[in-house]
Amino acid sequence: MSFPEPFYRWRPHPWHGLEVGPNPPETVYAYIEITPFDLMKYELDKLTGHLKIDRPQRTSSQPPTLYGFIPRTYCGKRVGELMEGATRGDADPLDICVVSERPISRSEVFLSARVIGGLEMIDDGEEADDKIIAVLENDRFWDKVSDVRDLPDVLVDRLRHYFSTYKMSSRGQNSVTVGDPYDLAHAKKVIQAAMADYQDMFGE
Fold first, then answer.
1. What pLDDT is recorded for position 54?
2. Is 139 helix (H, G, I), strand (E, B) or coil?
3. Residue-range domains of the chain with CATH
4. If you count Cβ atoms within 10 Å of the first and of the last residue's Cβ in the chain, which end, N or C, has fewer?
């Protein structure tokens, strides 16, 4: 029996082994680390490619959408230059929030997501930590949504609230600043910058 092409004898690294997506920057792959049902903050272990527990969610809010990252992206100099007030990117893959009508309760999956915009966030006072916003590809419920402005305001408000509180300490101290959502055109620029930053950092 012959193996199909391509055939991966071992599981590809989610950050480096998967492609950016079927048609970036419009349609990208999202590797999901956290679902709306998680009370723990999971994140990718960059060395092994396995998902690890980072910490329990520090507040009572839960992520309102699927949350993960776009493979083969890196938030470096180019991403930092696109955000006013930032001096650099956060040196992580580019984050993405994916809206889905049907509940998806498991993480460590990857999916195709249609980009519609993004959310500005600055971490530690200087690092650009953009949150790309997308809808699940072929989701019939959201198929008319082409820009973040088409989403219900309450959903965008929940995203802003979650990211403004998910690093808050018990004393109310916060290290992040969440700005306004931005449109599809700017989101595409951020994704292209993160793809270029990845090439600079890791090459092919």
1. 87
2. coil
3. 27-202 (3.90.80.10)
4. N
